Amino acid sequence: MRVQLSTAIVAIGIFSAIGVGSAWGQDQSAQPAQQAQPAQPAQQAQPAGEKKPDWKDRAEYDLVQAIVKETDPKKKLDLLNQWKEKYPNTDFKETRLEYYVDAYKAMNDPKQMLAAVKDLSAQYPKNLTAAYWACALVVSLNSTEPADLELAQNGATVFLNAEKPASLTEEQWKQNRPTMEILAHRTLGWLDMQKKQYPEAEQELTAELKLNPADGEAAYWLGTVILDQKKPERQSDALYFFARAAAFDGQGALAADRRKQIEAYVQKAYTTFHGNDPQGFQSLLQTAKTNPFPPADFKILSEQEVADQRDQQLRSTNPSLAFWLKLKSALTDPSGSGVQYFETGMKNALIPPEGQPTLKGTVISGKPEIRPTVLVLGIEKSGVAEVTLKLDAALSGKVEPGRVIEFRGVASAFTPSPFMVTFEVEKKNITGWPEPAVHRPVHRRAAE
Q1: Is 384 within a domain?
Q2: Which residues does 438 contact at the CB level (< 8 Å), separation at least 6?
Q3: What is the structure's pLDDT at 446?
Q4: What pLDDT is attached to residue 443?
């Protein structure tokens, strides 16, 4: 297994920089270490007044020089073991432990690398190299071992509370500090997610994404911890961050095949939540691709909210149709309760009640064809029969399919399949039917 870190994380190289041996001078036959001072590792700068670390002898120095120059990680590991065996009490223990971490990294041995990080962290709790790899390795290995989780927690805490090493300039510290905060918040968010502390995880991952918007994996995690809080009102936010993980394709994005899998998942979840809306889904992906966080006015309406919004709009523009659709919805309830609803709530009732707009329908047929007493109408769709009107008196003229009329009547019968509601209607409650033509008598002049 290769040591693979999220592409959103940039390694902090300065924490592994070890500058040994450069100050022995030009003469390679220099006298023992007491007579010449080699440069010290960057992380081991000593406070004023304390003894600086030094080589035990020239042989130790030469051995470390060989370690520095060795490019074969296995040979480097052998040299490190020699250094440890021959100089167990070296002044550069911290440096040596860092070299072990680096050697196992070069060998692509994450388990041994993590073990080396544990040794380094145990002996030097504030070591920044240990803090970095504790965070990066535990998360990338997806380890849930209690000791590993504690190691990562400590590493993130070290990063957040770290003070500038004496070996770094203010400018170097300023440049690298944000990367430390990114990794710390990312790690703490992942740890909280493992502990099912979802609100805390959301807080940490939000902080990380504000510092590092180009982290597709953290966006996916954020969607997960929001969803896991099981708050229906947050469904929209969860879908947004899933869409962000699927759509973002810049540096720091997830691999293309994983983005494709996430897109399929979020499309299904979006349709389940919102309803079938391909155009709306594509708009979501496009917005999430270019915006790490949802815009201030962003909201994905639930399917019920979409229906309510549509119903509200219909009530304002066509209250007659809105009333009928609500009535029809109750009659066609999937549970099969439509017949009972009709018997207990509609039968023998005046529909619509007085004071409400009359129902409007399109004539499909009538009997008899001349002076009809029965009309069949379509309301929702002009060509689909939904109601039958039984009139108390014949209408004048001939049935004209396609004519739109309005009515109010007493519901008397209902069949769910085929769907049909029958109304007893008084002729006076029909509007839109043409009045009979009035034939005036022709008066002729009397012959003169």
Answers
A1: yes
A2: none
A3: 55
A4: 59
Instruction: Tell me the sheet residues that pair with 366.
Output: 375
Note the pLDDT of residue 313: 83
Distance CA 115, CA 104 (A): 10
Q: CA 259, CA 255: separation in Å to the nearest integer?
A: 6
63 and 139 within one domain? yes
Alpha helices, DSSP H, located in 52-169: 58-69, 73-86, 93-106, 110-123, 128-140, 146-161
Q: How far is the C-alpha of 35 from the C-alpha of 197, rounded, in Å?
A: 58
Q: Tens of pLDDT along 39-51?
A: 344 444 455 556 7
- Give 159's Cβ-side CA count (13 Å radius): 29
Q: Give the residue from 392, 393, 397 showing the smallest Cα distance to 369.
A: 397
Q: Are residues 271 and 386 in the same domain?
A: no
Give the chain's residues under pLDDT 50.
1-45, 448
- pLDDT tens, position by position, 377-411: 999 999 999 999 999 999 999 999 999 999 999 99
Q: Please tell me the pTM assigned to this model.
A: 0.71
Q: Are residues 108 and 247 in the same domain?
A: yes
Token pair 């391909």 is found at: 278
- Write out the residue range of the structural domain in which residue 188 sits: 13-290
Domain identity same for 328 and 202: no
The reply to whether 304 falls in a domain is: no
Q: For residue 24, what pLDDT is reported? A: 30
CATH number, domain containing residue 256: 1.25.40.10
Q: What is the pLDDT of residue 49?
A: 57
- The enclosing domain of 410 has a CATH number of 2.40.50.140
Cα–Cα distance, 211 to 176 (Å, whole number):
13
Q: Tokens 């947050």 appear where?
A: 234
> Which residues are 377's β-sheet partners?
363, 387
How many structural domains compose the chain? 2
User: Within this chain, do residues 269 and 349 fall inside the same structural domain, yes or no?
Assistant: no
- C-alpha 155/C-alpha 187 separation (Å) is 9
Is residue 36 assigned to a domain?
yes
Can you give the pLDDT at residue 103?
95
| Separation CA 2–CA 13 (nearest Å) | 19
Residue 290 makes CB contacts below 8 A (sequence gap 6+) with: none
Contact 239, 300 (CB under 8 A): yes
**Residues 324 and 227 reside in one and the same domain:** no
Q: How much is the pLDDT for 16?
A: 39
Question: Reduced to 3 states, what is the DSSP secondary structure of residue 437?
Answer: coil
* Angle, helices 110-123/146-161, rounded to nearest 10 degrees: 60
Q: Tokens for 376? A: 């069949």
Clarify whether residues 110 and 162 are in a common domain: yes
Whether residue 305 is contained in a domain is answered as: no
